UniProtKB/TrEMBL annotation:
Underlying gene: flgD
One example of a Gene Ontology biological process annotation: bacterial-type flagellum organization
Keywords per UniProt: Bacterial flagellum biogenesis
Alphabetical list of InterPro entries matching this protein: FlgD, FlgD/Vpr_Ig-like
Gene3D superfamilies in alphabetical order: 2.60.40.4070
Cited function: Required for flagellar hook formation. May act as a scaffolding protein.
Name of the molecule in the record: Basal-body rod modification protein FlgD
Top-level taxon of origin: Bacteria
Native organism: Aliiroseovarius pelagivivens
Family classification: Belongs to the FlgD family.
FlgD/Vpr Ig-like domain residues: 110-178
């Protein structure tokens, strides 16, 4: 299966109202600030101590610092403009996500095919345990996993190797160190997307399990298994 990491949702889900486009006066303001900087730099040079002149490298550092700030301002304005555009075109962009599988920390539908899980243990952990719960929140499986971020497959069996019924399941990862509990966190798994929605400027995805998640909660996409 081809897995496609996606960095788009965070920008897509931001409503246009949250962004302020760069105004036409942004350019003149930056230009004015640069002229002020040059005046201050000239005054600094004229009034320096002749016996202890400022090093030319110091001027270069000041100019580079100002240029960096100016560039950052322009970059921020560009990102804001991009956010506006993505906010407007986001719904059409994610329309083709329907039918694909999204990696998200949410309950997913088990229909007999193994479910791919993406563990993310705490850095200090020396032991991790997979905890599987059914739709009622009852633990139906629990087993140790390698302390790794490598994907693992859950084949739909309980701790005794018995097949579990089709339905909605959620996954958690418990991290431990020296026998002490560190944390228990929701675990990302792949679920099929059946619908996209736009509600109040927020983009939502409806999974086959019936779970509704925001588009920015998706960390990866892949083609659904045949």
């Amino acid at each position: 299966m081809n897995v496609t990491p996606t960095a788009m949702p965070a920008a897509l889900t931001a409503p246009a109202a949250n962004y302020t486009q760069a105004s036409a006066s942004d350019g003149p303001v930056i230009s004015s600030d640069f002229e002020t900087f040059l005046v201050m730099l000239t005054a600094q040079m004229e009034n320096q101590d002749p016996l202890n002149p400022i090093e030319s490298s110091d001027y270069a550092v000041q100019l580079a610092t100002f240029s960096g700030v100016e560039q950052q301002v322009r970059t921020n304005d560009l990102l804001k403009n991009m956010g506006v555009q993505l906010g407007l075109m986001g719904m059409s962009d994610i329309a083709d996500w329907v039918g694909k599988e999204a990696r998200v920390a949410a309950p997913v539908q088990f229909d007999g095919d193994p479910i791919t899980l993406s563990p993310n243990p705490v850095a200090a952990a020396d032991e991790v345990i997979l905890v599987v719960k059914n739709a009622e929140g009852i633990i139906v499986d629990s087993k140790p996993l390698p302390v790794s971020t490598d994907p693992v497959e859950w084949n739909g069996e309980d701790g005794n190797g018995n097949g579990l019924p089709y339905g909605v399941y959620s996954f958690e990862l418990t991290s431990r160190s020296n026998g002490k509990h560190l944390s228990t966190d929701p675990m990302e798994s792949y679920g099929r997307i059946v619908e996209t929605q736009n509600s109040g400027g927020q983009l939502w995805l409806v999974l086959e399990s019936g779970e509704r998640v925001t588009a920015d909660a998706v960390s990866a996409l892949r083609e659904a298994a045949e």
